[in-house]
Write a structure and sequence with these properties.
8-stranded parallel beta sheet; single chain; 9-stranded mixed beta sheet; about 475 residues; 14 helices; alpha/beta
């Protein structure tokens, strides 16, 4: 085996052996190997263990000494189109922020979405994310195939992708928040959603692309849309996603308009169950948490965005203890300019402890939420989110021997509480996407220039 800068030359595209790393498997038992190895064959992990790695003729051998090996991170909530609208309404509440940004977002089209998604996905990959959702709910009438555009971007960058066909049909003139120019008619939503499922959804066990149905939120969609969308999703065998209980304003909206809490409203419309997950879930009472736990309804915790918009701190320990499927999400780049999944894990720990004390959340629980927890939210816990024989080969190898992390006793604490380490290697479905800190599937400098141009065009279009 010939090594080049710590990485063996590629002899066979089928087998990769990572040796000498601190391996955090994030399996159900929390198994860790301070000096361990993982063997990948094709798109699956075939062996994980402690001690010297097996010698496999023709395999690519990656020297993991000085590194921490984890499952790839799973992002359960995002809005990729927002990558070209960062830094706006930086000091506003959610409703004020939306009011500022909706007129800008109304100008997006397929080209803008493709550019934004490529930038956002490359950045996620560069920081250890292997699977991401995207909740795209702004569908301009003359915008072209915005869903096809973001799917093309995901295929180019090489991430496992769960795009959510979003929608809004409750415009400002009907008492909703979004301007009428960015809402759709109910029939158009249902037709467009079915089209996206028919064209793109892949239910295969090792799927790189699964579609979900995702009306935007109680204050931007009608009850009819929520009901019809749930029926459509369940007839097609896909999952359901929406924003819920993000702010006190939303709580007041549901109380005044529907006479109940957000979770009670969703339960009335059939929006609970193991095929449903909510983004944010910040303002929940005990009854709401009980409903979610009892029905298997999941949640995407987005601590950075919630803090950026002043929405509050979710009851994460209570959700986790109750058994609610719980993952992390970066949310849209317009309310979280960093979009770094490790920051979400760190903020989840820090905010939970700020709320409930130093034992409210451990660093390993945070890593679990960022990996196996997210996989569970997406219904893929049997194949993603842990390093075990038979799981898909989505993994991240982090350098923890540089100045930023050398000397930290616990590598998992270094990962979660320290600055984001250099990413030595990112495999998605067994394919290399990041190597020595560089995304190798796209040209980072070209993508950055395209994002800058798209941002300027969109803002100028909005006046």
């Amino acid at each position: 085996m010939v090594r080049v800068r710590g990485v063996a030359q590629l002899m066979s595209p089928d087998t990769v052996v990572i040796s000498g790393a601190y391996v955090a498997t994030v399996d159900a038992a929390g198994t860790e190997h301070p000096d361990g190895y993982v063997v990948v064959r094709g798109n699956r992990i075939v062996d994980v263990g402690a001690g010297p790695a097996p010698v496999i003729e023709g395999a690519r051998v990656v020297d993991g000494h000085g590194c921490l090996l984890t499952p790839g991170l799973v992002n359960t909530h995002h809005h990729l189109y927002q990558w070209i609208t960062r830094g706006l309404a930086a000091d506003d509440t959610l409703f004020g922020w939306l009011t500022t940004l909706y007129p800008i977002w109304a100008g997006i089209d397929a080209d803008a979405v493709r550019t934004a998604a490529t930038g956002g996905l490359a950045w996620l990959a560069k920081h250890g994310c292997t699977t991401t959702t995207d909740h795209h709910y702004v569908v301009p009438r003359d915008g072209g195939d915005v869903f096809g555009a973001e799917i093309e971007a995901a295929q180019t960058v090489g991430l496992r992708f769960h795009p959510c066909r979003g929608s809004m049909d409750l415009g400002h003139s009907q008492g909703g928040l979004p301007p009428d120019s960015v809402v759709e008619r109910l029939d158009d939503v249902l037709k467009g959603t079915q089209d996206v499922i028919d064209r793109w959804h892949d239910p295969a066990p090792d799927s790189m692309l699964r579609v979900a149905v995702a009306p935007c939120s109680p204050f931007s969609v009608t009850g009819d849309l929520l009901t019809e969308a749930a029926a459509l999703a369940r007839s097609a065998g896909v999952r359901l996603h929406t924003h819920l209980a993000e702010t006190l304003d939303e709580q007041d909206f549901c109380a005044e308009r529907f006479g109940c809490t957000p979770v009670q409203y969703m339960e009335q419309l059939g929006w609970v169950g193991p095929d449903v997950w909510y983004a944010h879930a910040v303002h929940l009472d005990d009854a709401a948490i009980g409903t979610m736990a009892g029905t298997g309804t999941g949640a995407a915790h987005c601590p950075t965005s919630n803090a950026r918009l002043g929405a509050g701190i979710a009851r994460v320990k209570d959700l986790h203890t109750a058994g609610v499927p719980l993952g992390l999400g970066v949310d849209g780049a317009a309310s979280n300019e960093a979009c770094n999944m490790l920051e979400e894990a760190r903020h989840a720990v820090l905010f939970a402890r700020a709320r409930g004390g130093p034992r409210e959340m451990s660093v390993r629980t945070a890593l679990e939420l960022a990996t196996r927890g997210g996989a569970r939210v997406l219904g893929r816990e049997d194949e993603l989110g842990s390093l075990e024989p038979g799981t898909l080969a989505d993994l991240a190898l982090w350098r923890v021997d540089t100045l930023a992390h050398s000397g930290i006793t616990d590598p998992v604490a270094a990962l979660v509480l320290g600055v984001t380490p250099p990413l030595e290697l990112l495999l998605v479905n067994g394919r290399t996407v990041v190597e020595r800190g560089r995304v190798i599937t796209v040209n980072e400098e070209n993508v950055a220039a395209e994002v800058e141009r798209a941002h300027r065009v969109l803002v100028r279009k909005a006046g």
